[in-house]
Design a protein that fits this description.
heterodimer, A: 311 residues, alpha+beta, B: alpha/beta, Rossmann fold, 2 domains, 7 helices
């Protein structure tokens, strides 16, 4: 090895320029040496600076620093007790808030469970299928299929957290198909949900609650029936899902005041999203109700399976 | 020949009952079909049948209300798919009923009984019907919670339902009651006097003849220069006066 460092200049023997491997090794060595030199220079410089600093500042600084530390200790001792108490109080509040949130969520889930499949709906549907089997077997089969689809989707909805909008819309579609067989021309429905929103996350059984509410309080009790529309869009980065009907409206339907279904939806939204979700209820024109759920827009990474489910 | 009308809002159900009745009671003549309570009452008036088969859950007028209107004009038989509310009256045989889907064997039993009854005058079901409709209402689900959950109010051009939990306070404003939330105010016609009976007393406190406040929205209480207590509201600048009758609500513990 003939690498030399002299006065900052580094010479490389010509023999290395012919052998790239040797050259590389030599260069590494040079780099190490340069680093060493620079480091020692820096250290020296720092030591010099420190010496100068100590010389110019007097002893008063040392005593000032000591005083500061002492004062700090006193303040800490005095305030420590208060801070600890505050922290304990904060922790207690947090636990209480968390507990109450958990309880709300559990209650909301229980209510959803109870609201699963209304017996009246089930029995009436089965009675209709029974008659159709004798009179119109092919219609009976279609209705039966819708029922199976609906039950399959509605019953395992106990799973926690969220599902996708696509699955929820599919569930409502089966539900509305069944009701269409029964209510015939008293019910018109349409679903205007962009396919791209199928994978958007949405809490389970909530859309179904809104649709059921519209049917039960809005359209079923109205002798001439009416229409129901489910629509979804993105507005300001939020997912907005709307159920609009031309039924009796909340004034006549008597859901104002103590409407339980909608109150449950509101409580569940609050438990799941805090203030980040919204439920709004408006009168439709000329009659009926418009209910809108607004939640933060997030989507399931694996959107493919959902697209298949809602196809 | 005995005659009847059938009332059900679903065509399939009407057809099925008609088909089964023809099977087990070939003599029976179905004079008309109705799709709701009003039509049923009209059909009874127009056709004067011996029997009226009435579905309980029908739009507009329910089967029970229709039965009240029909009174003793004919014998009434209720149709039900699943009845969570009327089991007692039915099981005790006070009222005749048909279970959906109508099965021939089961219907035959009902028909045998109806044939016997046809000779006698229709009995007055008034008291029973009142009982039934009360059960129907409570099972309808709309009135399970006793306290108001929503306030129906006009906000600008729109009629909206405002959840009571979001309301900060109500104040009376001449003819109207003002409803204040964090983001908007609305006017309703229901006076404070009525509201206080319908709201949850745990959550809503009356602090003045003309003021109800949401306890969760109270930020604190202060006094003005005349020594009157004023309630401070979270997220709102207005201070609400506490009248002397209600100062006990804010006494120190």
């Amino acid at each position: 090895m003939t690498v030399e460092g002299e006065g900052g200049a580094i010479k490389i023997s010509p023999e290395f320029t012919q052998d790239p491997e040797k050259l590389a090794l030599a260069l590494d060595k040079v780099r190490d040496q340069i680093e060493e030199i620079v480091e020692s220079q820096i250290e020296e410089q720092i030591a010099r600076e420190a010496r100068r600093y100590r010389e110019t500042t007097g002893d008063w600084l040392m005593s000032f620093v000591m005083l500061l530390i002492l004062a700090g200790i006193i303040v800490k001792v005095v305030l420590g007790g208060k801070k600890r108490a505050e922290r304990r109080a904060e922790a207690a509040t947090e636990t209480a808030a968390e507990e109450s949130l958990k309880r709300q969520l559990a209650e909301a889930q229980l209510k959803t469970m109870q609201a699963q499949v209304e017996p009246h709906f089930l029995f009436n549907t089965l009675a209709s299928v029974d008659y159709l089997i004798e009179t119109e077997p092919s219609t009976a089969s279609k209705m039966q299929k819708s029922s199976i689809q609906y039950l399959r989707a509605a019953l395992p909805q106990m799973r926690e957290g969220s599902t996708t909008l696509g699955k929820e819309v599919q569930l409502c579609r089966s539900y509305l198909e069944i009701l269409k067989f029964r209510m015939e021309d008293r019910l018109q429905y349409s679903l205007i949900v962009p396919h791209g929103l199928s994978s958007a996350q949405f809490p389970p059984m909530m859309l179904q609650s809104l649709v059921e509410n519209s049917i039960k309080h809005g359209l079923e009790p109205k002798p001439e029936g009416g229409s129901l529309t489910i629509s979804a869009d993105i507005s300001n980065g939020r997912l907005r899902v709307t159920v609009a009907d031309s039924g009796l409206g909340f004034a006549a339907a008597g859901i104002s005041g103590s409407g339980v279904g909608l109150a449950n939806v509101r409580e569940r939204l609050a438990a799941l999203y805090g203030g980040a979700a919204q439920l709004s209820i408006e009168a439709n024109s000329p009659s009926g109700t418009i209910v809108t759920i607004e939640v933060p827009y997030t989507f399931e990474a694996d959107g493919r399976s959902d697209a298949k489910a809602s196809a | 020949m005995p005659t009847a009308i059938i009332a059900d809002d679903e065509r399939l159900m009407r057809e099925q009952l008609r088909a089964r009745l023809t099977e087990v009671w070939p003599d029976l003549q179905v004079l008309a079909e109705a799709k709701n309570g009003e039509e049923a009452v009209a059909a009874v008036r127009d056709h004067r049948p011996d029997l009226a088969f009435l579905d309980i859950r029908m739009p507009g007028m329910t089967g029970i209300e229709a039965a009240r209107h029909i009174g003793d004009a004919c014998h009434v038989v209720f149709i039900t798919a699943y009845n969570e509310y009327a089991v007692d009256a039915f099981e005790h045989g006070a009222i005749d009923y048909v279970l959906k889907p109508a099965e021939a064997e089961r219907l035959a039993i009902t028909v045998a009984r109806l044939k016997q009854r046809l000779g006698s005058k229709p009995s007055d079901l008034g008291a029973l019907l009142t009982q039934l409709s009360a059960k129907l209402e409570s099972a309808g689900g709309a009135t399970q919670r006793s306290h108001l959950q929503w306030i129906q109010a006009s906000v600008g051009q729109q009629l909206r339902l405002i959840p009571t939990a979001e309301i900060l306070f109500f104040t009376s404003d001449e003819k109207y009651t003002r409803v204040q939330t964090e983001s908007f105010e609305a006017l309703i016609r229901k006076p404070i006097k009525e509201l206080i009976d319908e709201l949850d007393p745990e959550q809503f406190w009356q602090i003045h003849r003309g003021t109800i406040v949401n306890a969760k929205a109270i930020a604190g209480v202060t006094r003005d220069f005349r020594g009157r207590q004023l309630v401070l509201i979270k997220g709102h600048t207005e201070k609400l006066e506490v009248s002397r009758n209600y100062t006990h609500l804010f006494k120190q513990m």
